[in-house]
Specification:
Layout: E1 2-6, H1 11-22, E2 26-31, E3 43-47, H2 53-59, E4 65-68, H3 82-96, E5 100-104, H4 120-125, H5 129-139, E6 148-154, E7 157-158, E8 167-170, E9 183-184, H6 185-195, E10 204-209
Parallel strand pairs: 1-2, 1-4, 2-3, 4-5, 5-6, 6-10, 7-9
Antiparallel strand pairs: 8-10
Length: 213
């Protein structure tokens, strides 16, 4: 499979690229700063801005799917990001015929707030609220896009190895996540890659945490 990764220079994006290449996929990294991506066999790096439909369309040429792992630095956590990127993603996928899109979101965004518990829920209502509004603004466009989309909603992200049995569940099930839903980036990357071909996740918000339940 040929997979485009938006946000490939970030910590989760780098993990996505590493695991995808290890699984034998071809990877196209679409990044604002190409120099931030280490060259590797099987990896093509394309530079472009989040609102550059022409550049992203070129990057998606011959791709089978696109993964979105974008994130702002802490200093700009509430700055517009997904509301800029998602219209570009939707337009570029429609121009190239790419239908499968898996987007990294966060636990507590949109309807997944119902799946949270205190004390994490308090963060959703306070210091995470600005970033979460941006996610909702961008991701809500997917519902009417006619694409085969999935959003994945982890708790707070940490670096480290994959865990044996992360909890992955459809948010619509009403499942309550742990009070401290610590999540490894490696688990998120693996789940996103698995979901690319998992039709049961199409059109769904999927929860994930590395805490076994």
């Amino acid at each position: 499979m040929r997979i485009a990764v938006m946000g490939a220079s970030g910590r989760t994006g780098r993990e996505l690229v590493k695991q995808a290449l290890a699984d034998g996929h071809e990877v196209v990294a679409y990044v604002r700063r190409p120099e931030a991506v280490t060259p590797m066999s099987g990896l093509t790096v394309v530079g472009g801005q989040l609102d550059d439909e022409a550049a992203l369309t070129e990057a998606l040429d011959l791709c089978d799917a696109v993964t979105v792992a974008l994130g702002n630095p802490i200093s700009r956590a509430s700055a517009p990001l997904m509301q800029i990127a998602m219209p570009t993603v939707i337009a570029a996928t429609k121009r190239t015929g790419v239908r499968r899109v898996v987007v990294l979101s966060a636990l507590g965004v949109g309807a997944t707030f119902a799946n949270t518990r205190y004390p994490y829920r308090f963060g959703c209502r306070t210091f995470l609220a600005g970033a979460f509004r941006d996610h909702v603004a961008g991701e809500s466009l997917l519902e009417s896009s006619s694409l085969d989309w999935t959003t994945i909603h982890p708790g707070p992200l940490f670096d480290g190895p994959r865990t044996a049995h992360p909890t992955i569940v459809d948010a619509a099930s009403g499942h309550l996540m742990p009070r401290a839903p610590r999540t490894m980036r490696a688990d998120v990357a693996a789940a996103m890659l698995d979901m690319l071909t998992d039709t049961s996740t199409f059109g769904k918000q999927m929860l994930i945490t590395s805490v076994q339940q």
